[in-house]
Amino acid sequence: MRAPLLQLTEAGLYCPRGDFFIDPLKTVPRAVITHGHSDHARPGMGAYLCHNDSIPILQHRFRGRGIFDGLQYSERRVVNGITLSLHPAGHILGSAQVRLEADGEVWVVSGDYKRQPDPLAPAFEPQQCNVFITESTFGLPIYQWPDVDDVMQEMHAWWRGNIERDMISMVQAYPLGKAQRLLFLLDRSIGPIYLHASVADMYMALRASGIDLPDAEILTAATPPSLLRSALVITPGMTDAERLGSSAMAMASGWMAVRAQRQRSPSGVGFVLSDHVDWPDLHRTIDETQAETVYVTHGYEDDVVRYLHEQGRDARPLAHLAIARR
Amino acid sequence: MHGHLPISLLHDGDRTMQRFTHLLAALERSRRPADVVRAVQTYANAVHDEELAAARTLLTQGMRKRIVPTTDLRAWTCDASGLQEHWIDRCLADVGNISETCALLIPAPLQHDPPSVTSVLAMCTAKRISSDERMVWVQQAWQCMHADERRVFNQILTGTFRPLIDAEVFDLAFDDMPLPVPLRTALPLPSDLASLGSIHDHVVEWLVEGSRVEVVMAAGRVMMWSSDHTIVHRDEITAHLRASMPSTTDMILDAMIVERNGGAQLIVLDLLRYDGVDQRGFPYTDRRHLLRTIPGIRCVEELECEAWSDLADHLAHARDHGHGGVVVKQREAWYDDEGALYAQHVAPYTLTAVLTYVQFLSEYRTPAPLLQCTFSVWKGAELVPLCKIDDTLRDDHAIDIAAWARKNIVDRFGPIRQVEAVRVFEIGCTQVAHAPRKKSTLQLRNAHVIAERADVRLDQISTIDSILRQL
Fold first, then answer.
1. Which of A146, A165, A264 sits opposite B35 (nearest CB)?
2. How far apart are CA B262 and CA B163, in angstroms?
3. What is the pLDDT of residue B263?
């Protein structure tokens, strides 16, 4: 029997024939990166291969240190007899699925992905494959995303309500991905949008690299609270909330779909906005790949595997790829 | 009257279940009376009177009658979602309650057209309706709602919709009663007292311990609000106020309810509104002067202080007078002036007690459990519950206790779990009062956990007698 195209090692997913890692956890000579979030792209690798749009993100995060090589979506690169290509994952700017092909066998690593539209990430393109490795951050049937327009309507109503109550609106969101998505989605006729320093940092870096982002104000220590009266501030956490005076805080995340999680978030207010697939889209995607074997990682592995077994599919938690090696 | 309800009653086109869900969300975000009034008014402007009345009933009385058993709810959810029943249990573990779990598992609506609250209540009270008809109605309704609306709908059907606010608070949206204003909190007294300036620019008073209330009197009515924005019902106090003041009184007081000698007494700390005029912008001396002209109320006692050094003396005697410390107020400051109010508590009482009961405040195993812990001390040869504490345990410690408690359950009393009496904690509190109706005969104020004391054996923890000796 031929060795599998990918193995799970201590340093992460490894392609022995191509001698490279995908989103490695430890320092390795060659890393293929699905996207720029810190739990997928770590500093210190010998060389990076990723989508062209991810390069400025990695360069910014690693302060320029590293050797970066970029691909367009669908562009093919042959590495030691393995044909590697990247395909849109729809998660954030530059996010990609990694497709590997050798001897007529195709493996696809999804990375993080979503099927909802995103202004900065081209729509997810399902790849037919023999083996599909999927994330499962929200791999329970309770996670079914509401319509983004409805969510934004709620968020706008909350923002307007805060203005009436003389409170600054603060929305907690990841500085990379969610923050930019919000910039496109928020209705500027309600009030000005401010970015907290660490959100602004990534915003400036993306702009400098030529990404077209909507205008936003930058929150600094010198910003007088009076200027913020009708503002919405995008922030990574609770920082600054007190200095700014009376403010209302909310979190934008898929976890906010469950009320108990909403109530336990620091603010108690949440909007269901996620950059990951929900349950229906997860299974739609698996169907579309027509994969014979599905490996599940990054979240509710056991639950997704169980459901796929109930559907008569060959599915395993990703950890099994490590065992298969012996 | 509501014999066979036509299914068409579901679709009355004004999406009021959605509006009701929005109202609930607003009430969950903030119970501040001003916010409640605004949310209720917004709702009232959008719906007709019948709908408003239905919402009032639900919000103030809840729905405790079970129309649909949860076994039906589960079965219908499996039907609608195509999932096997074990998925409901799996998801329940993450969500925490069955109404919401089922609501989240139903596929998204093809057409969003939620029913009215009136029609939902009518279905709940309908008499001649078969269970099949009810099933069809529920499943149809589910297909027209978003998950949040379905959760509320399921709560109503399963009789788990709890009352959220007092009818009196709801009705504030429609009358002229002044709303309570934010009460200020004291800063800790700085160690360098001279930094505050001259003692003669300040008033020194006892720190009164009790329940902080805001008393609003207007239109012949008296309402008392607690600091967490709920209405306090103490008839003996409100009756006394009504009896001693003219019905035209329009006034707001910052005050404390003190339990003494088996009765409750109101000690007034400040005057926020008088004769319909906001007093917060006037100097404290003026507010206090005005307060003293009002008949029938008792003000906090002012202490004589010629020098800052006199403060220590008063502090040393605070307990003898039944007070918890002293407060220092700037004479000329307006009410909300930051740095105009300082408080110093006398050293807290401490005692050691053993954890005996735990209540998981969330119904199921969820990522971060919230606990209420009951601590007990010896009364003779018996362990008696002394205090319940939940807030200060809301950190990693709580998770440790939760995990431990689950493995060491001795007995169950409803939602309460008795655990093995082995974990000893040091407890602090600001006041110990007599409470004849309690098994321990004592009531602790502001009880909090200081630390776990693994070095103290069960037979060495505090006893009722040792606590009384401290007083």
1. A165
2. 31
3. 84
Dihedral of alpha carbons B127, B133, B138, B142, sign: negative
Task: Answer yes or no: do A220 and A160 share one domain.
Answer: yes
Q: Are residues A306 and A190 in the same domain?
A: no
Q: Which CATH number fits domain B187-345: 3.60.21.10, 3.40.30.10, 3.30.470.30, 3.40.50.150?
A: 3.30.470.30
Query: What are A86-126's pLDDT values in tens digits?
Result: 999 999 999 999 999 999 999 999 999 999 999 999 999 99
- Using a CB-CB cut-off of 8 Å, the residues of chain B touching A115 are none
For residues A46 and A118, state if they share a domain: yes
From the CA of A49, how many Å to the nearest CA of chain B? 37
**CA atoms of B297 and A106, how far apart (whole Å):** 84
Beta-bridge partner residues of B264: B259
Cβ separation A150–B146 shorter than 8 A:
yes
Q: Do residues A285 and A167 both lie within one domain?
A: no
Interchain CB distance below 8 Å, B84 and A310: yes
Identify the contact set of chain B against chain A, taking CB-CB distances under 8 A: 22, 26, 28-29, 34-35, 38, 81, 83-84, 87, 90-91, 94-96, 100-101, 104-105, 107-108, 146-147, 151, 362, 366-368
Nearest to B95 among A142, A144, A269 (CB): A142
Residue B397 contacts residue B412 (beta carbons within 8 Å): no
Q: For the domain that residue A128 is a member of, what is the CATH number?
A: 3.60.15.10
Domain count, chain A: 2
Domain map (residue ranges) of chain B: 7-168, 187-345, 349-470
Give A-chain residues touching B91 at CB under 8 angstroms.
140-142
Give which of B375, B345, B402, B69 is closest to B188, Cα–Cα: B345
Alpha carbons A314 and A296: distance in angstroms, whole number: 11
**How far apart are alpha carbons A168 and A132 in whole angstroms?**
45
Q: Which domain holds residue A198?
A: 148-271
Tens of pLDDT along chain B (471 residues) come to 333 444 444 445 566 899 999 999 999 888 888 889 999 999 999 999 999 999 999 999 999 999 999 999 999 999 999 999 999 999 999 998 999 999 999 998 888 889 999 999 998 888 888 889 999 999 999 999 999 999 999 999 999 999 999 999 999 999 889 999 989 888 888 888 889 999 999 999 999 988 899 999 998 899 999 987 888 999 999 999 999 999 899 999 999 999 877 788 999 999 999 999 999 999 999 999 999 999 889 999 999 999 999 999 999 899 888 888 999 999 999 998 887 899 988 877 889 999 999 887 654 434 444 678 899 999 999 999 999 887 544 455 666 777 788 888 888 887 788 999 999 999 988 778 888 888 888 988 878 888 888 899 999 999 999 988 877
Contact state of B29 with A269 under an 8 Å Cβ cutoff:
yes
Do residue B95 and residue A165 have CB atoms under 8 angstroms apart?
no
- Structure tokens, B29: 């975000």
Which CATH number applies to B7-168: 3.30.70.1170, 3.30.870.10, 1.10.3260.10, 1.10.1200.30? Answer: 1.10.3260.10
- ipTM > 0.85 for the complex: yes
pLDDT per residue over A187-206, tens digit each?
999 999 999 988 999 999 99
Specify the pLDDT at position B362.
Answer: 52
Query: What CATH architecture is B349-470?
Result: Beta Barrel (2.40)
Contacts of B26 in chain A (CB under 8 A): 161
Q: Which positions in chain B touch A242 (Cβ < 8 Å)?
A: none
Please check whether residue A1 lies inside any domain of the structure: no
B146's tokens: 């978003």
Say how many Å lie between the first and final Cα of chain B, rounded. Answer: 64
Task: Specify the amino acid at residue A181.
Answer: R
**Tokens for A148?**
């983004």
Out of B28, B91, B146, whose CB is closest to A141?
B91
- Residue B277: phi and psi, rounded to 5, are -110, 130
Point out the residue among A144, A157, A258 whose CB comes nearest to the CB of B108: A144
d(CA A9, CA A136): 20
Smallest CA–CA distance, residue B29 to chain A, in Å, is: 7
Tell me how close the Cα of A153 comes to any Cα of chain B, in angstroms: 12
- Supply A176's token pair: 């990379």
**Inter-chain contact A258–B28, Cβ cutoff 8 Å?**
no
Q: Cβ of A310 and B35 within 8 Å?
A: no
